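Quality-control log, excerpt.
Job 1 of 2 completed; input and output follow.
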Amino acid sequence: MNVDILIGGLSYVIVLIALSVVIYRRKSLDALGCITMVVMGIIIIFSANINWLIILFLFLFISLIATRYKKPYKLERGLYEGQRTAKNVISNGLIACIMSAIGGLSLFLFGDSGLLFTCGFIGAVSTATSDTLASEIGVLRQPRLITTLKKVEPGTDGGISPLGTLIGIIGSGFIGLSAFVLGLIPNLALALIISIISGTIGCFMDSILGAVLEQKKILNNEHVNLLGTFTGSIIGILFSFIF
């Protein structure tokens, strides 16, 4: 690693730490959650590049905005999650972090990070974005259980709604658009196809696991989120072989 790259990476780390302090002071993440975010960010900065981290931060800021949207309504009905923890950061960001680290290793060894790992990264972040938006905005309408389509109370594990599904698709599409703008995927149509399909499938997998396993206390929310992003990542990787 040459000196210019090291200095540039360290400057990004300083910015990352500053952002984590702001996020902590706003009580969006607890202290351990901020530390976890910084560690994962450093891995991405020095294994891939800053554009990959920007994609992950776009998800973070979208999720924070969605969480605070209609806060009084959510508080009144006990649906407001409030301050996120390290478990939330890991369950939503671990797979994306792994994809960037492996992509960076591939870049170091072979001179190419490969579309495979990029698509896996985009699939994971698109799923996290789609699921968060579907959950935070979807609670504003009465959902139906994904396995039976029976009406359930807002906030029920495995509940889905047309509003939540639509906003989730828009969110995953935004991640694809950002990936194109930042140069991770050179073709806009491909970026949108990968992000929307992988994000939507991953989000539905999250809901299915929530309805089948989380309601029975076999898995918790973090397990479900992790498996959902893993599913989205696998779908993204499969698309890399197709295209």
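Job 2 of 2 completed; input and output follow.
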Amino acid sequence: MSTKHELILRYIESLAVGEKISVRQVARALSVSEGTAYRAIKEAENQKLVNTIERVGTIRIEKKKKENIERLTFAEVVNIVDGVVLGGRDGLHKTLTKFVIGAMQLDDMRRYIDAGSLLIVGNRQQAHELALSAGAAVLVTGGFDAADEAKKLANELNLPIISSSYDSFTVATMLNRAIYDQMIEKEILLVEDIVTPLEETITFLPDDDVAYFNQVNRKTSHSGYPVIEKNGKLIGIVTSRDAVGKHENETIGKVMTPHPITVDPKTSVASAGHSMIWEGLDLLPVVGENGLLGGIISRQDVLKAFQMAQRQPQQGEKIDDIVISQMKAVPDQPQNIEFTVAPQMTNQFGSLSYGALTTLLTEVGNRAIKMRKRGESVPENMTIYFIKHVQLGSTIIVEPRILQMSRRFVKVDFDLFSESELIAKAMVMYQLFER
């Protein structure tokens, strides 16, 4: 049975794109409290089903698919640039295809403006009307207003005119950063990207017996199987270890492990992989908020995802990418790494930041472990002894030493030098992630 929260989300999803909604409206329509409606609308905003704009309200927008996540709706533009909607409110749900800075003559502007674009321009009234007539929205910078004729045209065409107090360069930078951030988000692998769906998942009911389990297990040789009720709700996990030595008439419900660790579809693959390592799991059930099983992921699935992600070109540059791009093997000492401190890796004092140093140590340690033994690893704990701050532009030599390696754990010691002077020492414990 669905919860009130899920019913509200389904109700919001069924609304027409562009429709305005409110907490009071949802509460009345579904006979729930305003507090319940408010929480569900906030979740819908997280899921990018709606967008809330100050002084305008909450608008149903088109849910973005992963392949076009880098596109912004005009409603999102309003929030990014702290804008005010001057006209064309009914078009805020629409998605922009590109933005154009109107630093050119009108005749030249016509060549760049097309339907679905956003013209960023100051108080040039003719440019506003030109853009709207071409099917483009308008972002007026410098806090200027628009003419009544332009506002009327915007309302007729359902194309927003937005005013922002920022200048054109700042607005373009803010929009570019928002698109850039969403491109990074697009690259992050989620559990829903690698899950084995329920239709392909072998499951057991609590009333099934051990004899049936053994029969199925001999054919598949999987490490574990979800146990569900008839309504699809997950209640446990059963493995061959659970069934060993049990009487064949014993029910699965009595031998299974109840209340298993689970993940939801929006969990990142990296987070799920860490949970599997730390808990020693080979299989994780994937469930929704209602507790219904949606599928499973295995260690092999996570490893393949890690390997695929490493081969993919990166569109958005994260701090990890910047750190890795600065790493170079030292000639004649391939286990050691040379590293140059770039501006993006510094703190407010111009010294190497703790975050960049942590990333550097993690990556150098992973590399050293791969040179000794193939496979993925994740840091479990880290101890850093800072001896001296490292300034912008400094070159660092990182010398990793594997102190101990077992089947599951690796201890790596690090010495960091700058101009032959010891500047830091660290110790990192890694867990190995094997098939």
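Post-run check on job 2. Residues 3 and 290 are 7 Å apart (CA to CA).
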